Amino acid sequence: MFEKTTGRRALYLASVTLCFLPARAVLAQTAPEVARGGVSAGMQAEDITVIGTSPLPGSGIDRDRLPAATAILTAHDLQGTGTADMLHALDSRLAGVSLNAPAGNPYQPTIVMNGFQASPLQGTSQGVAVYLDGVRFNQAFGDTVNWDLIPDLAIERVAVEGPNPVFGLNALGGALNVRMKNAFNTAAGGEADLSGGSFGRIVAQGDYAARRGDWGFYVAGREVHEEGWRDLQSTDIQSLYADLGWKGQATDVHGSLDLANSVLNGPGTSPVELLRADPRAQFTAPNQMA
């Protein structure tokens, strides 16, 4: 059974984040001889991956010092199919993560991590916490996750972490800590992409980043239309993400906004006998999330 909800317009996320970076004492020492290329003689640069110890920005330690299994996917990792797709990147790159689609719509899948689920369907036993720039993304009612509200193009990185009480309730399967792009963690300039495919699929998306002094602005948007191959199956998504930030020597201040309007029609589960007669047939209709 699927719920029918109409008129959903999401003015979903408006957050202000204040990050203070602690100062560290540095012991005086004799400066080593610097070789060509800026690397000290006899020394090699070491790559250190920092992962957050809580959902809040600004908290992090060396990933190798965290006594838990973790994974990080960058914006480049999300583009394995040509365009950014967070959920399918998690499914294809990480062990213990899989997708299924009980709602029948490709933009509202259920993700399974370590046997626990994060789903858009009410009544599903939720066990994965999702955070967007430190703000809990699970809905207040039922802890559901509306994946269509996240513009994949605007994701800077995704940290996949194991069960941890700092991520709050229903995080027995772990947590997805999503960091969005801003003018200070992505290259200045913009890009735009237009693609199409079978069954009336059209996707238009783009983003732009600019910096001026200590101030920066980032904006990303996308529009998706798809008819689908099942009866009464269609997708219409419009989303906009914007971030305005100021960066000092030890402080970042950001205000972000996520706007989305979605109308998703999914055929849902159908009896095998019906699908044998017509693979496009729908057993119950309409199944709309809007």
From TrEMBL:
<dbReference type="GO" id="GO:0015344">
    <property type="term" value="F:siderophore uptake transmembrane transporter activity"/>
</dbReference>
<dbReference type="Pfam" id="PF07715">
    <property type="entry name" value="Plug"/>
</dbReference>
<feature type="domain" description="TonB-dependent receptor plug">
    <location>
        <begin position="65"/>
        <end position="175"/>
    </location>
</feature>
<dbReference type="GO" id="GO:0044718">
    <property type="term" value="P:siderophore transmembrane transport"/>
</dbReference>
<dbReference type="GO" id="GO:0009279">
    <property type="term" value="C:cell outer membrane"/>
</dbReference>
<protein>
    <submittedName>
        <fullName>TonB-dependent receptor plug domain-containing protein</fullName>
    </submittedName>
</protein>
<dbReference type="InterPro" id="IPR012910">
    <property type="entry name" value="Plug_dom"/>
</dbReference>
<dbReference type="InterPro" id="IPR037066">
    <property type="entry name" value="Plug_dom_sf"/>
</dbReference>
<keyword id="KW-0675">Receptor</keyword>
<dbReference type="InterPro" id="IPR039426">
    <property type="entry name" value="TonB-dep_rcpt-like"/>
</dbReference>
<keyword id="KW-0732">Signal</keyword>
<feature type="signal peptide">
    <location>
        <begin position="1"/>
        <end position="28"/>
    </location>
</feature>
